[in-house]
Write a structure and sequence with these properties.
This protein has 397 residues and is an alpha/beta fold. It is built from eight helices and 25 strands. The protein folds into three domains: 175 residues, 3-Layer(bba) Sandwich (FAD/NAD(P)-binding domain), CATH 3.50.50.60; 125 residues, FAD/NAD(P)-binding domain (3-Layer(bba) Sandwich), CATH 3.50.50.60; 67 residues, 2-Layer Sandwich (Enolase-like, domain 1), CATH 3.30.390.
Length: 397
């Protein structure tokens, strides 16, 4: 049995950031990374953004070679044995560790009963598959109106393909944005050529040869419609990949539970990234965050904590998105139970959206305003009470 000082389960952004964190403290300690993907770690956001605008796919690859890592691709771990400090692969190989990081991320949610060929979009493999289909096919159905759905719809329309979006919310990104902004995005996407089928639920997808038939119904009047498509893509979020941890006796609840130093209930086992349920210190509650900034920053600290003095994870992660010529950066909490105040410089084109609870700022979206995230963090951290008059014109551009 071969042993390593550090083993990382997961070959994504979090795992690769952890390698860099380890190397800050320990230049020579042996590291193994086990990934179920066929590609070495890469940046995930370009899969729905930059790659469709002509960015070279090699540019998204993380430079792991300089860090002396034994990288095991397409070799998933099927068992963790904490009391023996070992992991076992699906092929039956066993490896020992001193410190272990779970950076297992999440798996895309797939609708039940989907036929072969329906893409639950998440990985570089999915990107290459879809890239080839775009060259051959004409009509694309995207099920989902959130981050993945909205970004992919924009990407495919830019490739002059016919795109339909089907989702149950009243507007695009309806779980995040205020209703009027979400509705304005519907009209914006329609002007760009996207067929937006909001307030609709997909009932069944059938496949006949190379063609798909999607049956869906309207939530309001229950009218059933069928439509043919060449390609069907599902982008409705992910579920944290916790089965491995749970089977090993690691505490799990909407992700792998970690303390403020990113340790699980086993002090030598850490978790980070999309899969980690952590205490968001600035917000004062436990969360799980599925965005790039959190993956990179948390992964880096996990690596440092595995290889050196334990530090508290108190970072305040942000996220961003690009939607045709529109875009935003956001930080904080965006629950629909919060009060929303919109301060538009140019309605639905540039402005700030504040999310408040008991007059305190809990979240901020900077719509086509850039470089303001630190200011948003400061507002939330301050814990001060604000009136709408206070917020008017706070961020002018």
């Amino acid at each position: 049995m071969k042993s390593y000082k550090y083993i990382i389960i997961g070959g994504g952004m979090t795992g690769s950031a952890a390698v860099m964190g380890i190397r800050k403290n320990d230049p020579d300690g042996s590291i193994a990374m086990f990934s179920k993907e066929p590609f070495q770690p890469y940046n995930r956001p370009p899969l729905t953004k930059g790659l469709w605008d002509g960015k070279d796919v090699e540019s998204i690859v993380r430079p792991m070679g300089q860090y002396q890592v034994d990288l095991f691709l397409e070799k998933p771990i099927e068992q963790i044995i904490p009391d023996q400090k070992q992991v076992r692969t699906t092929g039956g190989e066993t490896f020992g560790y001193e410190k272990l990081l779970l950076a297992t991320g999440g798996d895309p949610i797939q609708l039940p009963g989907m036929p072969d060929g329906v893409i639950a979009y998440r990985t570089r493999v999915d990107y290459h598959l879809l890239e080839n289909l775009v060259k051959e096919k004409d009509s694309f159905c995207i099920i989902g109106g959130g981050f993945i759905g909205s970004e992919l719809a924009a990407a495919l329309v830019k490739k002059q393909r016919k795109v339909s979006m089907i989702f149950p919310e009243t507007g695009i990104c309806g779980d995040l944005f205020p209703e009027d902004l979400s509705d304005s995005l519907v009209h914006y996407y329609q002007e760009k050529g996207v067929k937006v089928l909001k307030e609709n639920l997909v009932d069944v997808v059938n496949k006949n040869g190379d063609q798909y038939t999607v049956q869906y119904h309207n939530i309001e009047d229950h009218q059933v419609t069928e439509a043919p498509f060449d390609v069907v893509i599902v982008g409705i979020g992910i579920k944290p990949n916790t089965a491995l941890a749970e089977a090993a006796g690691i505490d799990v609840d909407n992700g792998i539970i970690v303390n403020e130093t990113l340790q699980t209930n086993f002090s030598d086992i850490f978790a980070a990234g999309d899969v980690a349920n952590f205490k968001h210190i600035p917000l004062g509650k436990r969360v799980r965050v599925e965005h790039e900034d959190n993956a990179n920053t948390m992964g880096m600290l996990a690596g440092q904590n595995m290889s050196g003095e334990l530090q508290t994870y108190d970072h305040f992660p942000f996220f961003y998105s690009d939607l045709f010529d529109l875009g935003y950066e956001a930080v904080g909490d965006f629950g629909k139970d919060l009060e929303i105040y919109e301060d538009w410089i140019d309605p639905f084109k540039k402005g700030t959206i504040f999310y408040l609870k008991d007059d305190k700022i809990r979240g901020v979206i900077f719509w086509n305003l850039w470089g303001k995230v630190d200011g948003g963090r400061e507002l939330i951290r301050s814990g001060k009470s604000y009136t709408k008059a206070d917020l008017k014109g706070m961020f002018e551009g």
